Amino acid sequence: MNTVIVIGGGIAGLTTAIALQQQGITALVYEAASDLKPIGKGIWMPTNAMLALQRLALDRAMLQKGVPLDRLELRDSAAGMLSVIDLSQMRATFGHTTVAIRRADVHQALIERIRPATLHLGKQCIGFSLRDDRVTAHFADGTTATGDLLVGADGINSVIRQTLFPNAQLRYSGQSCYRGIARMSLPASLQQVAWEVWGGAHRFGFSAIAFDQVYWYAPFIAPPGSKLSSDQRVARLIQHYATFPDPIPAIIQHTVADEIITTDLYELAPLPHWWQGRVALVGDAAHAMTPNLGQGGAQAIEDALALAEQLVRCSTITAGLQAYERQRLPRARRIVQTARWYGRIAHLQDDRLRRLRNLAIRATPAWVSRSQLRWLYGLGW
Ligand SMILES: Cc1cc2nc3c(=O)[nH]c(=O)nc-3n(C[C@H](O)[C@H](O)[C@H](O)COP(=O)(O)OP(=O)(O)OC[C@H]3O[C@@H](n4cnc5c(N)ncnc54)[C@H](O)[C@@H]3O)c2cc1C
Q: Which atom, in ligand 1's list, is nearest to the CA of 177?
């Protein structure tokens, strides 16, 4: 194979280009935006993402910029601690823990690793055509790009997916989410700890991403399409999280109102396949999920690595794409389902159900959680 055309310069597209280039394949990335401004403030790169990045020699770059986390504490806003996930055990088992990092730093690390002239900005793909074992991407500015394989890494509203699978459906999760970065330092005891606090319709998670910056996210039950001004958003946050434990109210106070973003949370109904002919999907284009397990970006990175490895391992493109789908689709599908289920139990509003849920979580034996985490955080290949 000579050339792969990658549509989309997010985590999935950039990592796919790096993984292909590492295998000696020419990969060119076409991104619609005229400059790359990653949306989303911070991100937790879980152990499985770090293991895949290690194979691409990118784990050190993430560690240099981010904060490795030792513990994830799960709390109920009224009942207190529900469980503690000892992330340092993952480091002992796999060699990496979860790293909390600014999204801009992730993108920067990826862009620094792609070969010169790989990334083409301002190229909005509007479709593709197939001819003589070649595939051509068509862009809104009238230009085209031709290669042996086209990879759709164009995110949750993927044009490439829509062309391959016109019946694919996005489903609203019932939740929207505020995100921000607070300019403040956490107490020393929380510097390498992440929290997620459940409070019925409202939830709040945070961790340090630098010694003086705290990334936070706040999902809440709501219809899609909220149009609040930044001041109204802050007023809402202050009101809803006033009874949440410290330091949550302070984190909200230390965030610049205009920098808070709102994202309605959707997932993609499972696709039957992730490829057709000479076109494949990676990342949110293939398996957009609710962010409840912090795995969307991680799964995109796993896709990138698996796709590049299978294309090189197999003798034809078709065999490579079949092997890629076999390797990745069942795992990603299970994670999408688990994330959806987690989002539902996190937002139980009935007090009796909340108490039962809390009892069940506290009674879960440590070995059960450990084996689930090993499955989630292990790369598995
Ligand atoms: C609230 C929230 C919190 C999250 N937290 C985490 C976390 O902690 N850990 C984690 O692993 N994941 C997390 N995720 C998920 C993660 O953000 C996504 O799964 C990941 O960003 C998907 O990357 P992608 O490259 O597939 O898509 P995107 O990031 O959407 O990138 C797609 C790119 O394609 C471009 N594009 C789109 N259409 C076209 C076109 N027609 N032509 C050319 N270019 C196009 C876009 O401009 C964009 O740059 C979270 C998500 C949310 C919403």
A: 1
In short, whether 298's Cβ falls inside 6 Å of ligand 1 is: yes
> Where residue 37 falls among pLDDT bands split at 50, 70, 90?
confident
Is residue 157 domain-shared with residue 81, that is, in the same domain?
A: yes
Residues 162 and 283 in one domain: yes
199: in domain? no
Distance (Å) from CA 363 to ligand 1 centroid = 36
For residue 201, the 8-state DSSP code is T
How many domains are contained in the chain?
2
pLDDT, tens digit (0-9, with 9 covering 90-100), for 98-119:
999 999 999 999 999 999 999 9
**How many Å lie between the centroid of ligand 1 and the Cα of residue 40?**
9
CB 358 within 8 A of CB 200: no
What does pTM read for this prediction?
A: 0.97
- Of ligand 1's atoms, which has the minimum distance to the CA of residue 217? 1
Q: How far apart are CA 243 and CA 76, in angstroms?
A: 11
User: Which ligand 1 atom is the nearest neighbour of the CA of 285?
Assistant: 26
Same domain (yes/no): 26, 113 = yes
The pair of three-digit structure tokens given for residue 292, joined into one six-digit string: 């409840």
- Domain of residue 223, residue span: 171-184+205-265
118 and 247 together in one domain: no
Examine the domain organization and report whether 60 and 144 are in the same domain.
yes
- Tokens standing for residue 43: 């991100």
- Element housing 179 (H / E): strand 170-183
Average pLDDT estimate for 167-190 = 97
Q: How far apart are CA 96 and CA 154, in angstroms?
A: 29
Separation between Cα atoms, residue 359 and residue 221, nearest integer Å: 23
Positions of E strands within 245-349: 261-268, 275-276, 279-281
Tell me: cis bond preceding 330? Omega within 30 of 0 counts: no
